[in-house]
Amino acid sequence: xxxxxxxxxxxxxxxxxxxxxxxxxxxxxxxxxxxxxxxxxxxxxxxxxxxxxxxxxxxxxxxxxxxxxxxxxxxxxxxxxxxxxxxxxxxxxxxxxxxxxxxxxxxxxxxxxxxxxxxxxxxxxxxxxxxxxxxxxxxxxxxxxxxxxxxxxxxxxxxxxxxxxxxxxxxxxxxxxxxxxxxxxxxxxxxxxxxxxxxxxxxxxxxxxxxxxxxxxxxxxxxxxxxxxxxxxxxxxxxxxxxxxxxxxxxxxxxxxxxxxxxxxxxxxxxxxxxxxxxxxxxxxxxxxxxxxxxxxxxxxxxxxxxx
Length: 308
Known about the structure:
Blueprint: H1 7-34, H2 40-70, H3 77-151, H4 153-172, E1 179-180, H5 181-198, E2 203-208, E3 217-218, H6 222-233, E4 242-248, E5 253-259, H7 273-284, E6 289-293, E7 296-302
Parallel strand pairs: 2-4
Antiparallel strand pairs: 1-3, 4-5, 5-7, 6-7
């Protein structure tokens, strides 16, 4: 009990006060003065140097005052060397530990804040991209309807029925992050039905998807966009039919493959595949795999598993 109030203990309290409270005070002043002027790493370095320098001077002054001034220790060379070593090593070590814990906590807090802000930004961007899908689809659908009316007004009624099915799907799934692949297939089949009626013999479609795979989740309008892209940018005639194959490969990716027979198209808004790829990147951190090989245009889109 008496050891707590011994002279050695009192000296230890003085040194600890300098190193803990004094150095922390100097560190906070340094941080407040430079926080907006330097980077986080630079600030940590400057704070450490300021605190350690104060600690060295403080420990040396306290040691010299305690041992020499108060108790009359002779200031020999060995004594001064011991004081210098103590004044250098102790503040450097103690401040190193303190600043490490301080900036580790600050870095963690900053990282969490950045991640939270990043998540909010990604969600906002993802919502904006989802909202772009419907206007893009609407624009192209009306262009198709205009062409059908000109070619064969009697088929326009059937097109409108199929188009209403597609829009019903769009409205029902507008707020959804993912949908079942089976639902996407229904919308795509309505689109293909319209185009087959418009250009008899112009489409050769093969859909080879197992029933189990149809339960996989995918982004809303993803498959529709891939098929629409093939129809929009390729020649579709009875003399030069467009072949489209839809299947799920061994890596559980949805594959849309079409013969590559490009045509000159009117100006495109350019939001189709690029928009879809960005949505996949935001949701899964990986996007579309696009390949041109052997006269075919192949797009692979990741599936998201089956919702329990």
